[in-house]
Amino acid sequence: MLSAYITHPDCAHHDMGAGHPECPERSSSIHDRLLIAGLLDYMAPYDAPLATRTQLARAHTMSYVRELIAAAPTEGHRFVDPDTLMNPHTVQAALRAAGAAVLATDLVLAGKASTAFCNVRPPGHHAVREAAMGFCFFNNVAVGIRHALDVHGLQRVALIDFDVHHGNGSADIFRCDDRVLMCSIFEKGIYPFSGEDDNGSHMVNIGLPARSGSDAFRAAVTGCWLPALDAFAPQLVYISAGFDGHREDDMGNLGLVERDYAWVTRQIMDVAQRHCHGRVISCLEGGYALSALARSAAAHVKVLIGAD
């Protein structure tokens, strides 16, 4: 059974302006690297569908969904926050990105794909229940997770976030939902300046100092994430896959490299093999140095699809 590779050309039409780090080339650089590495030969391609308002409203308020869709400009750009802009194609791209997580959920839970990688943008993990922020409009992973819980009837889902920035939107959405175990590692003291207070029985969020490097990252995964995940025994695992902790990416300063992303993916896959038949869904979040992003995503996908 092949892994699913979910993307859509609409995702390239969302553009926040010249020089913006969250650029259309992010997804194409990943696609090209996967193609050159031969990894797409091991994956079944799917077009991301448009998420429905009902699907979005499981993670966001319906009023926010309506307001964001209505706010789309007919030309030029509209600011959502100082770093986040909409163009006339943003809503369509955001609906595709959230729809990819829903499709991935359906495919994996139906046994039509072993794992899934959603190469979509805009990213999602900063989008809170009632607001867009941090380059994010809809929380793609959260939409997928709530689809797994509320439509497919799962009771325990794990969300693992290794983006260099804390997934404050995901924490906001799942803070009171003990069906979801959220595990994240992020750099302290950078945007969105949150995370260390989001801990408890179903949140394991670890802030690391700048320049922590591979050893500290791996120690946090081994010492904190893995015991919590094994105790929780998830029925499905989602990954918010951000690659901006790479040492070549100036959006963060953790000092990670490709082999760290391969290593953490292997740990996640081992957990999934123990508890949920290897069912893992990965959605692209950050990563802005294009070469490092492409190499890191390829290292991640290679393990995700069992080609390592």
Features:
308 residues; alpha/beta; eight-stranded parallel β-sheet; two-stranded antiparallel ribbon; 9 helices; 10 strands; 38% helix; globular
Explain how this protein is built.
- Strand 6, helix 6 and strand 7 form a beta-alpha-beta unit.
- The chain contains nine helices and ten strands.
- The mean pLDDT is 97.
- Helix content is 38%, strand content 17%.
- It is an alpha/beta fold.
- Helix 1 crosses helix 9.
- The strands form two sheets. The protein has an eight-stranded parallel beta sheet with strand order 2-1-5-10-9-6-7-8, with helices on both faces.
Any chance you could write out the topology, listing elements then pairs?
Blueprint: E1 3-7, H1 25-36, E2 43-47, H2 53-56, H3 62-70, E3 78-81, E4 84-86, H4 90-109, E5 115-118, H5 140-150, E6 157-161, H6 168-174, E7 180-187, E8 203-208, H7 213-232, E9 236-241, H8 258-275, E10 280-284, H9 290-304
Parallel strand pairs: 1-2, 1-5, 5-10, 6-7, 6-9, 7-8, 9-10
Antiparallel strand pairs: 3-4
Helix pairs in contact: 1-9, 4-5, 7-8, 8-9
